[in-house]
Here is the input.
Amino acid sequence: MKNARFIFTLCFVLFAACPLSAQNLSFLQNIQSKIDSALSRSFAHQNTAPLDSMLTQLTKVTPQNNLTTYWQSYARSMETVYFMKMKQIKEAENIINRACDDMEKLDKKNTEDYALLASVQNLAIQFRSGMGAGKLSSQAVENAQTALQMDSTNLRAWYVLASNDFYTPAFFGGGKKAEQYLLKALSCPAQQVPNPYMPSWGREESYQLLLTYYVQKEQYESARVLLNTAKKEYPNGRWFITEFEQQLKKAQ
Here is the structure.
């Protein structure tokens, strides 16, 4: 309840202090879903025009504040995913570096800001090598932990910690805490208070990563139990449910 009141108050103060026009307020409603849909359209059209359009519209929202920067950086992280899938590595590196820079520059970051900063830093790690990669990985962990200090039920921060651990090579100490972090993430709500302007990402991603972890470890029974839980939570289905059902059938 304390965290719920905090988030409600944060949103109220944000919009009271920086009032948006009715048109802009309408655009920011369900903004995460709009950006995710733009990514899907980008893959369908084989270009970034839908995501570019989202970024253009976000830069026109006035006044520009932490919330608009947050969603611009989130959109850039989705554009990074597109470029990576298309093997356009230089473009991916440039766009994720911009997202990192923008999030780092934010004043008075809240728990969600720190969680997204950690997330985009996680994406940027693969474009670094040696000590540069290690330093950025440490920064991502530190920022995710800061997010959790502000709100211990921030699902996205737990997911980012899990992702960082999962993709860190065992030689460097990775792979030891991913399951623990993902189970913690899935014990938290996507949002404390439903709010169409605020993020809710991380829950499906946590299911996907934990299922991947169990399959890689050949812990098939744990994977089946988790998959059944996911089916109950998403009765209308999700792509990852079908994918892991097929994988587990092959593992029988």
Residues 1-23 have pLDDT under 50 and may be disordered. The CA atoms of residues 2 and 132 lie 38 Å apart. The chain is about 75% helix and 0% strand.
